[in-house]
From TrEMBL:
Protein name from the UniProt record: ATP binding cassette subfamily C member 11
UniProt-listed InterPro entries: AAA+_ATPase (IPR003593), ABC1_TM_dom (IPR011527), ABC1_TM_sf (IPR036640), ABC_transporter-like_ATP-bd (IPR003439), ABC_transporter-like_CS (IPR017871), ABC_transporter_C-like (IPR050173), P-loop_NTPase (IPR027417)
Locations listed in the record: Endomembrane system
Domain of life where this protein originates: Eukaryota
Originating organism: Moschus moschiferus (Siberian musk deer)
Membrane topology: Multi-pass membrane protein
Family: Belongs to the ABC transporter superfamily. ABCC family. Conjugate transporter (TC 3.A.1.208) subfamily.
Keyword terms, alphabetized: ATP-binding, Glycoprotein, Membrane, Nucleotide-binding, Repeat, Transmembrane, Transmembrane helix, Transport
Domain named ABC transporter: residues: 496-729, 1138-1334
Renumbered residue ranges of the record's region Disordered: 495-519
Transmembrane segments: 157-179, 274-307, 373-396, 798-823, 858-881, 930-952, 958-977, 1049-1073
Gene Ontology terms for molecular function: ABC-type transporter activity; ATP binding; ATP hydrolysis activity; organic anion transmembrane transporter activity; purine nucleotide transmembrane transporter activity
Length: 1341
């Protein structure tokens, strides 16, 4: 892939700007290219690396191994790169940013960019190299992505294993060596105090080392995960963009990979190494517990070993359930996406309620599956909390049942030793889930991106005199064409259609205009074609004959089955459906090319864009909405054409570029652009505008994928073949009804000048400042979550009473878990039970052998029954909790969709679909999948910490006081530094939308990106967006660990305090109680930091609910669907008479009027043709009629009824529309004709034959613009026959197609210019309609 040359020049602001992009702007191709400063940009780092080619592979890593690194004279932009070992492991490099968050001065402008070592570019190259080595060793079929994953993180996995060993050792070191010594010291306080204090400090030190080791494992894993995520993200995108068309993967599969599979692979690297930690913990705890209490300790280990398979089993079941759930979720998201994309059509058809029901039913089905997943997930959480208690119960019941001696010290030392094993129960599901999901994701990664490579069949010709040569070329959209199987046609599920030939850029699995036949034969058969340099080749034929496929073949998008295709010179391409990028008009035209003012102005003129730019609010800096929603069809097509002309290429492929423009504009473009600007270029022009073919140097006619006629215009006319027949039909149509030739006068030219209208719909002046563009930057909340978010979520979950019941069940479960430890201490404290003084037994270190206690069975019975009751409580909790947490997101989802679907069109014009989809997809996923996990864990952990604190407070009330002070300080500390965490989390959430918008834009315009040589720019922009997202993700994860580590170190002070109280003898509590308290206090630090950290994650995930509530607040509904007491008269409208009375309309507040005081009457059952220049207000009439925008003045009456007095559904259901941009929903043809099964098959077949619509008023908005003339004539005949007795409004660019209408309405500048019968207007002197007709007739003749 050729690298794009880069020209960096300094700016006055101190940054660098690339002259390969637009000099005047920092926005290119609708995508933000941030100015990079020399001091803080990754570009400078890359320059440093290139300047030091001798740098070793592990240089940066070895520097990090230095325990303490002095601050360098020239620090790296990312402080992580200057960190020493302790700074790295303790995350001290992040401290300045955390303190900046404390001062509320942290935002995206002062957050360092991602380290060059973690950036997408470097890691993608490394992954590519590793994959190539894997393929060279094992071959492409046996090459393993998992082996590559292992090699990618091999060195870091070794360091992670070392830290895991350190954690496992320190986890048992304190309980085995220190705790027995402390308990022994408490019984002999006369010994040296320094020795006792030393024991306490030793316990504190081992706990701190344990905390640091665990944190280090997470630090290593998260950075490794970030690197691999960046590598896979970029590698997959680079592979994807190599294809000029996607025949091996659908749009849905590609999006699913980038949204889901990438995260699965990341989790495999992030959580996979935890399997090593789990095994090491099991080994260390098993060995030490056996040393302390003997072989019976293996019973506890066995209990854990039984729980682990159960956890793994539940995790696998969870994954299976999630796979089923994801299928329904994908279906819901797909339907939601189509509804949001097609919302204008849905509103016109009054399909809001049926589609709302469809989506709610899908959500209901999804919720049932989510509840099953949630129940399994909740069970795994409950098992995590029950495991230590159950293991202890099982161990000591077995131990006493075998009549083995059990002392207080040995018992609680064993409890403390086994306690870390609960972490293995907690980590095992994460490891299993991460590895399982990553394995399936790795298979898809290999299938879609690694095994498939683009086949480049277009040869580079050496002869410049022949830019295009096809020899015996047979091409298909499929790799093979097996044809007929078993006597019937074998239809593929996923036929591919190039996005350039489809309407409204549908998913890549749809059918295209060239694939509507029932055959699987190749689309192009044995094509022989030579195009000479500097000639204009005209390509014509009926719809579906193979014209667009010819251009796709030259572009290299299809599969070459036989023959050859050759091209010489650079290409420019104008697709039939314009590919528009979100950005300004200028950015769409330049596409990253250098700005040449003179050439740019010439291009605007020849593409007839100059006047449009004059009336746009910010000229060529005006932002174009998503998919060009604020442009007319003609304006989008002309911008696409201007992009091709500005690129100044040698060969131009134009796919029906004049279909969406009126005759006058079409003639101007043909004369000024095709015949003048492109006069020395080679042009292949596919067109249904047959009047222009006589000016072509060569003409070919396609039928059924074959060239049936070839030659110049005069020769083909003389042959009297199919071409001559098409031309004859065109001339007949052109002259039909023309009573006299009308020549242009100065007056007519003036009238035409008046027809240069204000822009339609959204091309309006919002404000005079550039900041108030159509689409504003998404608002990001600041600070902690407001209480109203919690309130609304609790209400959505069933209210405070239901949530209170869930909390009570959690409290009871935690109480009985800890009750078992208290009961064990009480039982052991009773000793033999035979002494006369029970008090002495209770306080003594050795109260006697519990096996001699006559009440031994009672103690065992209570011990066992309490565990069974705890299990019962846990199951009840899982059931109730799952129901509540499943109900809340569904309630919010349904409320949001109700509000969004009832928003007026101006909301959708100014809100990108990606943002709304992020709510219905990404945010809902967080509420469905992740929020329940963290809510349950955070509440349970908090309750455990609180109850343990109360238990140890019985040693001394001062411990409670000190504990409260320490915990309060920790909470304040967390509360203060949580501001930085919230900033990182919100920035991470908001960084998703630009990245996925970029992916969608790329997928929709692959061929154009290749034609204009912009693959490198799109890859670089993708890497930049990926680095931004990964940087915020790394900062968020690191900030959480930064706070968690410091909280754990602070709460280890509670352990120190308890130990000191015991050593100094401040507590008069029984010996068994002291042993229990000391064993339990070891859990406080890890549980407390985990509860605080997970509580913070809970708040972070609740920002998804915050966004949903924010959009619900933004949604201001349009007029009601029904108005009580204002039902329309029975049988209305009976005649279909439409009256505009001084009607005025504007699209949004603070925008100019687009329809100026219209006053006219359209009689019932009248067919009215509506014409006018592009943007004259033709389509705005339909918008007004359907009340997609409310009037600014005046009113519209239909059969005497003011349409504003009716409900929207009552009004719109009486109309029918064929829109300018038809949209096909995913599904069968029958589903598109009747999405809600309202019609019988007979009615469907009748509709297929006659395009039948049973409504009184019909609006047809340029429905035949892209069809050939014969099909157009057939449809006009169908309209006359099927819509007889209806009032029909036909908006048309082809003036000749509406000559049979009863009357003609000529629009200009948002006003009625003329309105009369066509024959009257043709005779009228100075008639604008006559001038338009003359222009069309002249060009066609």
């Amino acid at each position: 892939m050729a690298r794009r040359r880069i020209y960096w020049v300094p700016r006055s602001s101190g940054g660098l700007v690339n002259l390969g992009l637009d000099v005047d702007d920092d926005m290119v191709s609708g995508l933000s290219y941030k100015t990079i400063t020399v001091e803080d940009g990754p570009w400078r780092q890359q320059v440093r690396e290139r300047e030091a080619p001798g740098r070793g592979k592990y240089d940066a890593a070895w520097k990090t191994m230095i325990p303490f690194r002095p601050k360098p004279k020239f620090p790296e932009p990312q402080p992580l790169d200057d960190a020493g070992l302790f700074s790295y492991l303790m995350l001290s490099w992040l401290s300045p940013l955390m303190f900046r968050g404390l001062r509320r001065s942290l935002d995206e402008n002062n957050i360092p960019q991602l380290s060059v070592h973690d950036a997408a570019d470097k890691n993608a190259k490394r992954l590519h190299l590793l994959w190539e080595e894997e393929v060279s060793r094992h071959g492409i079929d046996k090459a393993s992505v998992l082996r590559v994953m292992l090699r990618f993180q091999r060195t870091r996995l070794i360091f992670d294993t070392i830290m895991s060993c350190c954690f496992s050792i320190t986890s048992v070191l304190g309980p085995v060596l220190v705790i027995p010594k402390i308990l022994e010291y408490t019984e002999n306080p006369s010994r040296d105090v320094a020795y006792g204090v030393g024991l306490c400090l030793a316990l504190f030190f081992t706990e701190c080392v344990k905390s640091l080791s665990m944190c280090s494992c997470w630090v290593i894993n998260q950075r490794t995960g970030i690197r691999f995520r960046a590598a896979v993200f970029s590698f997959a995108f680079e592979k994807l963009i190599q294809f000029k068309s996607l025949t091996h993967i659908t749009m849905g599969e590609a999006i699913s990979f980038f949204t889901s599979d990438i995260n699965y692979l990341y989790e495999g690297v992030y959580y996979g190494p935890l399997a090593v930690l789990t095994c090491l913990l099991l080994i260390s705890c098993s060995i030490t517990s056996c040393i302390i209490i003997g072989p019976t300790a293996l019973m506890a280990v066995l209990c854990y070993l039984l729980i682990l398979p159960l956890q793994i089993f539940l995790t696998r079941k969870l994954l299976e359930s999630q796979n089923h759930t994801s299928e329904v979720s994908d279906q819901r998201i797909r339907v939601t996406s189509e509804v949001l994309t097609s919302i204008k059509l849905i509103k016109m058809y009054t399909w809001e309620k049926p589609f709302t029901k469809v989506i709610k039913d899908l959500r209901k089905k999804e919720t049932k599956l989510l509840e099953r997943c949630g129940f399994i997930q909740s069970l795994t959480t409950v098992i995590l909390f029950l495991a230590p208690s159950l293991a202890v119960v099982f161990l000591f019941l077995t131990h006493t049942g075998l009549r083995s001696k059990l002392t207080i010290s040995a018992a609680f030392t064993t409890v403390a030793t086994l306690s870390p094993m609960r972490l293995s129960v907690f980590l095992a599901p994460f490891a299993v889930k991460g590895l399982t999901n990553s394995r399936s994701a790795a298979d898809r990664f290999k299938k879609f991106f690694l095994q498939e490579n683009p086949v480049i069949y277009v040869k580079a010709l050496e002869d410049p005199s022949k830019p295009v040569v096809l020899e015996e070329a047979t091409l298909s959209w499929r790799k093979t064409c097996p044809g007929i199987v078993n006597g019937a046609l074998e239809l593929e599920k996923d036929k591919y259609t190039p996005e350039e030939t489809t309407r409204a850029q549908p998913p890549l699995g749809g059918l295209g205009p060239e694939d509507h036949g029932n055959t699987r034969d190749p689309e192009l058969h044995k094509i022989n074609l030579v195009v000479s340099k500097g000639t204009m080749l005209g390509v014509c034929g009926n719809t579906g004959s193979g014209k667009s496929s010819l251009l796709s073949a030259i572009l290299g998008q299809m599969h070459l089955l036989e023959g050859s295709v050759g091209v010489h010179g650079s290409l420019a391409y104008v697709p039939q459906q314009a590919w528009i990028i979100k950005g300004s008009v200028r950015e769409n035209i330049l596409m990253g090319s250098q700005y040449d003012k003179a050439w740019y102005l010439q291009v605007l003129h020849c593409c007839s864009l100059s006047h449009d730019l004059e009336i746009l609010p910010f000229g060529d800096k005006t932002e174009i909405g998503e998919r060009g929603i604020n442009l007319s069809g003609g304006q989008k097509q002309r911008i696409s054409l201007a992009r091709a002309i500005y690129s100044d290429r040698e060969l131009y492929l134009l796919d029906d570029p004049l279909s969406a423009v009126d005759a006058h504009v079409g003639k101007h473009i043909f004369e000024e652009c095709f015949k003048k600007v492109l006069r020395r270029k080679t042009v292949v022009l596919v067109t249904h505008q047959l009047q222009y073919l006589e000016f072509c140097d060569q003409i070919i006619l396609f039928e059924d994928g074959k060239i049936c006629e070839k030659g110049i215009h005069s020769e083909l006319i003389q042959k009297r073949g199919r071409y001559a027949q098409l031309i004859q039909n065109m001339h007949g149509k052109a002259t039909q009804g023309v009573l006299q030739r009308v020549t242009k006068t100065e007056e007519e030219l003036q009238l035409e000048g008046q027809a240069q209208t204000t822009c339609q719909e959204e091309l309006l002046n919002e404000n005079a400042v550039l900041e108030n563009q159509l689409t504003q930057k998404e608002k990001m909340e600041e600070g902690s979550l407001k209480w109203r978010v919690y309130h609304h979520y609790i209400q959505a979950g069933g209210g405070y009473l239901i949530c209170g019941l869930v909390f009570f069940l959690m409290l009871m479960m935690v109480f009985f878990v800890l009750f078992n430890f208290w009961w064990l201490s009480y039982w052991l404290g009773q000793g033999s039970g035979n002494n006369s003084s029970q008090e002495s037994n209770w306080t003594a270190a050795d109260p006697g052998d519990i096996l001699d206690n006559p009440q031994l069975p009672f103690y065992q019975l209570v011990f066992g029954l309490s565990s069974l009751f705890t299990i019962f409580l846990g199951i009840c909790l899982s059931v109730v909790f799952t129901k509540v947490m499943g109900k809340a997101p569904t309630t919010l989802h349904n409320k949001l969709f109700n509000k969004v679907s009832h928003c007026p069109m101006r909301f959708f014009d100014t809100t990108p679909t990606g943002r709304l989809l992020n709510c219905f997809a990404g945010d809902m996923d967080e509420l469905d999948q992740f929020l329940p996990i963290v809510v349950e864990q955070s509440v349970l952990l908090s309750l455990v910490v609180i109850i343990i604190l109360f238990i140890i407070s019985f040693l001394s009330p001062y411990i409670l006081l000190i504990g409260v002070i320490i915990f309060s300080a920790c909470l304040i500390y967390f509360r203060v530094f949580k501001r930085a965490i919230n900033v990182f989390k919100r920035l991470k959430n908001y960084s998703c939308s630009p990245l996925f918008s970029h992916i969608l834009t790329t997928l929709q315009g692959l061929s154009s990106i290749h034609v204009y040589g912009k693959t490198e720019e799109f890859i670089n922009e993708f890497k930049k967006l990926t680095d931004v997202q990964n940087n915020y993700l790394l900062m968020f994860l690191s900030s959480m660990r930064w706070v968690a580590l410091r909280l754990e170190l602070m709460t280890n002070l509670v352990t120190l305090v308890v130990a000191l109280f015991l050593v100094f003898g401040f507590s008069s509590a029984p010996y068994s109680y002291k042993a229990m308290a000391l064993s339990l206090v070891l859990q406080v630090a890890s549980n407390f930091q985990a509860s605080v950290r997970i509580s913070s994650e809970t708040e972070a995930y609740l920002t998804a609910a915050e966004r949903i509530l924010q959009y619900m607040k933004m949604c201001v509904p349009e007029a009601p669907l029904h108005i009580e007491g204002a039902n329309c008269p029975h049988g209305w409208p009976q005649h279909g008479e439409i009256t505009f009375q001084d009607y005025q309309m504007k699209y949004r507040d603070n925008t100019p009027i687009v329809l100026h005081g219209l006053s006219l009457t359209i009689h019932g059952q009248e067919v009215v043709g509506i014409v006018g220049r592009t943007g004259s207000g033709k389509s705005s009439l339909g918008v007004a009629l359907f009340r997609l925008v409310e009037p600014a003045g005046g009113r519209i009456l239909i059969d005497g009824v003011d349409i504003c007095s009716l409900g929207l559904e009552d009004l719109r259901s009486k109309f029918s529309v064929i829109p300018q941009d038809p949209v096909l929903l995913s599904g069968t043809i029958r589903f598109n004709l009747d999405p809600f099964d309202r019609c019988t098959d007979e009615q469907i077949w009748d509709a297929l034959e006659r395009t039948f619509l049973n409504k009184m008023i019909i609006l047809i908005d340029e429905a035949t613009a892209s069809l050939d003339l014969e099909t157009d004539i057939l449809i006009q005949h169908t309209i006359r026959e099927s819509f007889r007795g209806c009032t029909v409004l036909i908006i048309a660019h082809r003036v000749t197609t509406i000559l049979n209408c009863d009357r003609i309405l000529v629009m200009g500048n948002g006003k009625v210019v003329e309105f009369d019968k066509p024959e009257v207007l043709q005779k009228k002197p100075g008639s604008m309609f006559a001038a338009l007709l003359a222009t069309a007739s002249t060009s066609m003749s």
